[in-house]
Amino acid sequence: MTDSEPKEFVLAGVVMKRLVSGKQTDGLFCLFENRSGGQTKTPIHVHADDDETVYVIEGQLTAIVDGEARTLSSGESIFLRRGVPHQLMNPGDRPVRYILIGSPSMFEQFLAEGGHELREGDVAGPPTPADIERLKAAAPKFGITLLRDWPARSSSKARKT
Predict the structure, then answer these.
(1) From CA 108, how far away is CA 101, in angstroms rounded?
(2) What is the β-pairing status of strands 51-58 and 96-103?
(3) Per DSSP, what are the bridge partners of residue 14?
(4) Residue 6 has what pLDDT?
């Protein structure tokens, strides 16, 4: 399988199918179609060097950005800026499918190291202790900081406009 062929990974119980690799875009971005059957969530985390854009194809996805939750439905999107803590979750039992664009494309390398490839016949389930340890070990190598809880927000950031 080459870097231009679709390949599926599992991270935090979410199946992530690579549609466009960083190799195809000279590192500018990578594109994934993600799916969750429900009861999934990423750790609270911050990317130092890359941004993410999420577009929901079907179902609902909750994005918590800097401690504020937003439910995204089919046809809605959100930009997750580097340096801002966030978490994506599908807390219900209904499936969700969404596009994730990582720019630049370093998320792809993190996924390959921090997640695991989904082989034919495998079923994605809740992360195992080994999955969690692999994710924790890979995150700092790719500028991702995993947080135990939401950081305190400054009063200027907390104000709504």
Answers:
(1) 10
(2) antiparallel
(3) 11
(4) 77
